[in-house]
Amino acid sequence: QPAATMTEPCDLSAVDLRALIGARKLSPVELVESCLKRIDAVNGTVNAFVALDEQGALATAREQEKRLASSTEQPKLFGLPVGIKDLVNVQGIRTTYGSLLFKDHVPDADDGQITRLRQAGAIILGKTNTPEFGSGANTTNRVYGATTNPFDPARTPGGSSGGSAAALACSMVPLAQGSDTGGSLRAPATWSGVVGFRPRPGAVANERRLLPLTYFSVQGPMGRSVADTALLYSAQAGSAHPGDPMGFPFSTADLAYPKPANLSKLRVAFSEDLGSAPVDDGIKRVFRARTGKFRAAFAHARDDHPDIAGVRDAFWVLRCVYYMAYHKEKVEKHRDLLSPNIVTNTEAGYAMSLADVAAAEVAWRQWYDRFQAFMEDVDLLILPGNAYPPYRLDTGAPTTINGKPMENYMDASLIRSALTLTGNPVIAVPCGLDETGAPFGFQIAGKRHGEAELLSAALAIETILNADGETARPIPDLEKLT
């Protein structure tokens, strides 16, 4: 981040902030106050934070300040404010899931992942906006309204972790939590100029999942850099929860502070559209130009992709199973209070048969096998972060891409949702602006169970990108948002 923008503590990286707090050069109270000041300045325009716990955060910060005076050892997130997507229960903080059905809901207990963050020393500052139940390519709901893109408030920051992404872009918090089904960590990170990391399923335990064994929704970290994102992930991941059948324990010791990989030893495949996924021609042009700047850094680079035949239809069926499980009863009883996305996605499942589901499961398995075979002789697969630039809030998602009609908004997410079904870790890394002046970025997929290696590679790629003004992480003009 350019030094000229670092006028407040909240503008510093999470890694630097943690070091300053540990060295007693910055107080957790000062940092929380800096974050609250930034929120007060720009949140009225951006609408990223929807519920704040100012007094609770300051009280925690004061307690931590006292601990600093008497202790030399602090946990890894000690003193760092974190934004929590409004799909996660936080004790005592209004948690609506973006739905009128829960507009007055205040949980009486933390979800397990919040307990882990608190144990790691994080300060829970408040809740960030989400579409209803996380369903949507933008971030708007009937409780709080729309979150806007910090680079152009007429446009969306993407969804469904758009509140977290926009908050990070404006330095309202150094770290934020999100979740990802068809790209909900990756899409808003790309459109907001920040980093979003989709880990392998089960890495961040989530005891509130209704479907016990599925790759669909995962919890994950967001930050303004790869290093910050890795730091948060190292606190989120690795702890099993008895309520999550997919949650599993593993060591996160090598995740918190990754070292840059030696890119000259890595084999990489580049694909602008996975062969047939809808991707805007302008995004393809930017992708080709930007990747051309760092292709030579790798031991071997080729243009290639696995075969995604059948993946789009399989994802749609499996998604409808997900919606039927979570929302069928709500649609039947409270249809008028729900967003059209919830209703249409759920009702699409009514027309499907058990044979359709079985065929989708088989197609999923076949895609999984093809993808893992493809990744056997490459270390990374690099793709565009999104299929098209962020759209205007008043027009909604594009109904066509390159003149070809999209059947629904999920069609245009295939560049992301195909990766969901692989189970492989994927990180979104920013790379300057696109032809429309909006943030552009890459998705980088790593090997199955290869989070540490992927984070190290992404860190090295980010270093190359940030050294070039055209490809460095973009920063919004905050004066235009106040």
Descriptive overview:
By secondary structure, the chain is of the alpha/beta class. It is built from 13 helices and 15 strands. Strands 1-3-2-6-8-7-14-15-11-9-10 form an 11-stranded mixed beta sheet, sandwiched between helices. Strand 14 (426-433) and strand 15 (439-445) form a beta hairpin.
Spatial separation of the terminal alpha carbons:
21 Å
Task: Report the helical percentage.
Answer: 25-40%
Gyration radius, in Å: 21 Å
| Beta-strand percentage range | 5-15%
Counted by DSSP, the helix tally is 13
Spatial sequence of strands, sheet with the most strands: 1-3-2-6-8-7-14-15-11-9-10
Question: Helix-strand pattern, N to C?
Answer: HHEHEHEEEHEHEEHEHEHHHEEEHEEH
Taking pLDDT < 50 over at least 5 consecutive residues as the criterion, the unreliable ranges are 1-6
Whole-number mean pLDDT? 96
Number of strands: 15
Q: What coarse outline follows from CA principal-axis ratios?
A: globular
Query: SS-based structural class?
Result: alpha/beta
- Give a short account of the largest sheet: 11 strands, mixed
Short description:
With 482 residues, the chain is α/β, with parallel strands linked by helices. The chain has helices spanning 14-22, 28-46, 54-70, 112-119, 162-169, 186-192, 226-236, 281-291, 311-334, 340-348, 354-374, 414-420, 451-466; strands spanning 49-52, 81-85, 123-128, 140-141, 145-146, 175-180, 195-198, 218-223, 267-270, 300-303, 380-384, 400-401, 404-405, 426-433, 439-445. α2 (28-46) runs antiparallel to α3 (54-70), α5 (162-169) packs parallel to α6 and α9 (311-334) packs across α11 (354-374).
